[in-house]
Design goal:
This protein is about 30% helix and about 20% strand. The protein is of the alpha+beta class. The strands form 11 sheets. Strands 27, 28, 29, 32, 36, 37, 39, 40, 41 and 42 form a 10-stranded mixed beta sheet that branches. Strand 33 and strand 34 form a beta hairpin. Helix 5 runs antiparallel to helix 6.
Length: about 850
Amino acid sequence: MKRAITLLLSFTIGILFSHAQVITSPEEHFGFTPGADRMLFKYNQVVEYLRKVETQSPMVKLTPIGQTAMGKNLYAVFVSSKENIANLDRLKEINKQLAINYSLNNAEREQMVAQGKVFVMATLSMHSTEVGPTQALPTIIYRLISGNTFSNALNNVVYMAVVCHNPDGMDMVVDYYNQFKGSKYEGGPMPFLYQKYVGHDNNRDFITLTQPETKAISRLTSQEWFPQVMVEKHQMGLTGPRYFVPPYHDPIAQNVDAELYTWSNLFGQNMLNDLTSKGLQGVSQQNLFDNYWPGSTETCLWKNVISMLTEAASAKVATPVYIEPTELTGTSKGLAEYKKGVNMLLPWPGGWWHLSDIVALEVESTISMLQTASKYKERILMFRNDICKKQVSLGKTIAPYHYILPANQQDPSELVSLVNLLKEHGVNVYRLKQNITIQNQNFLPGDIVVPLAQPFRMFIKEVMEPQEFPERRLEEGGKVLEPYDITSWSLPLHKGLTCFTINNNAIDNSIIEPIQSSFTLNQKTLPEKGFALLPSTVNQSYKLAVKCLKSGVQVERTNEHTVFDGIELPAGSFCIPLNEKTRQVLNDANFSIMTSDVKPNNTSISKIRRIGLLESQVQSMDAGWTKFILDTYEIPYTVINPSQVAEGNLLSKFDLVIIPNTNATLLKDGKYKRNGQVIPSVYPEIYTKGMGQKGIEALTEFIQNGGTVLAWEQATELFEGTLSLKQGNVSEEFMLPFKNNAKEVQKQGFSCPGSLVRLKLKPVYPFTFGLADELGIFMRDSYLFETQVPSLDMDRRVIGYFEGKSKLLSGYLKGEEIMDGMTAAIWLRKGKGQVILLGFSPIFRASVPSNYKILFNTIL
């Protein structure tokens, strides 16, 4: 009997031990404690760790959510009680119903609130040099699933972390750091972009959704998981506060519901309380970071998600840094001095700052957020449906009620793009089924209708209306607070579309129908023969023409505006012969293509110029965006660096050199210059080579002999002042007939911090093909040109100029009267060649498609 009992006990204990959760610690997996000085793991290593703990614990679920621009898998990791993880599909559906079902009755709501859980979503290390958040993730998860400390919170909450917002960049940064570890460059900045195209601007893409990482994360909040709370984890500079949590500083978004701000403030206040109670110093609030501009991951705030930002002071990547107390400074707004005050209650005194300090802040702030979400679980879930219902009700009772975009647009391809973008954002879009006259305007069947009576009303209003920057001051009569980023993002205006704001509730649901699938305006079958006529007003026309040219088809452009075969064709329109090859290309059009049996008169053969895209060794984000646009439109180009320019002989390789917005002294000298003084480089020598005087002379020789240069913003400074040209034994000095007046007008009070401004255009062909007589350009206040009477073998033409009142289309503009008679777009001739200089970026963050044609017309 005793032996039987002993065997039974042994068997039972064996079963218990076999089912015990043995969780691998981060130290065991990585071989070091995450956050240790000068130690970093790579993306695949953290994914391997998460896969391992997923097999060891029923509290963890790793899920793919998309791919990066370079093909890596993106993952979200879910951490909660084992019951919640086993029930994720049901919890996901509850999230969706609470978020967008405004018809739930009280009983249904109460049941879902009782069954549901608060999902707290964190996006980590999108800016890849800000390594702390992803390096902290294994420690966060290990603490959550080891033992029972957080079991109560995890019964109520699901922690949902995007493992790394930017895996491509994470590996670039870790590799670069390890490459130079032990050298004088250890912990220094990386000279290339940490994303395929856009680098740091990946946090400026959450309206336009151009990058695959942005699309994947936007899907989580807008279409799939609908978390109730979201935090994006960042790092900031070395010498200010150690941590930032909400509340934000002014200005704040005027369209965002007050309760969303009170909730983010509550989470921020609890983080401050919890971090301070644990002795973590230097936590600040209500300084530096405002919450006016959408475009970051926090854009989901406009979609009813309690959204917030945290920012930790940085180390030198993983290398500790010593900060003298005298080096600690306040911020530009909200914390004028680095002293104890209401916005920083417990200042950090200075000393050594380690990656482990950042990791500790990330761990404790995350735990604080989860505990706050657990404490207020029922209220947060109820609020999510309350605000859904509230936004729908406001859309039915307060103007505006609808936006209508006529189907007949100058650029129908951009209308299609806008409709599909709104749908990607989770917005419901409709078409009119019949004629209707509203506000003395007749609308037709097929016109696009965007109602505001839907859950994401705040977002719709924000991106569809022109922006009016709210002037806020710290004191009466004081200086207007500057925006953190830009002040204009109106999608219809930026895309050059006609949009009507409907301020009376005249559209009944019976006269509109939803657009269910991917939207297109191409309803036409192309004939087997004849000619396709693509208007120059349509952006997609250029892409289709380029694809046909690359396939060897002869493409022609009309030299003037003409009415042909009953078809009105603007100057610069494309004529493409129809055959099996071209029909295959043209069938990809998202607009209906006009055709004719005969070819128009007065056309010229089009060709793609041989393009050299000049990019500095320390890469420019604007150059990255330019490459993105060229690749999107399938335009071939060759990237050249300043050293290659200095080798000369450019005309044998290129017809056109494009120089995007890049610091001119960086291009010329390989180093930055501030206040007239060259700043010593912090990069290895290989990345500090500029083109030098030889490169400038190579560019002027290229122009003199027939080449074309297109440059904008900072790059235009390469062509200011006295230039030199050498041809054989003959030297020449000259000044191109223009100057930049921006600094002078800034002294007179002019300010334009990223706004859409009206530019009047002259018909300077081919550069203005497809453009109307006015264009909204995305402008900042550093470049306002005036031309001068030329000498020698030079000439000039103003392409676009400022005139009259109401120059501002969207954003903020102070001192607009000072701009009268100045220009932001000029054409210059020197010898046989030409230079086009722009005081604005025609491709700014791929967000102003109405400007692209200036670039395209220079290429084709």
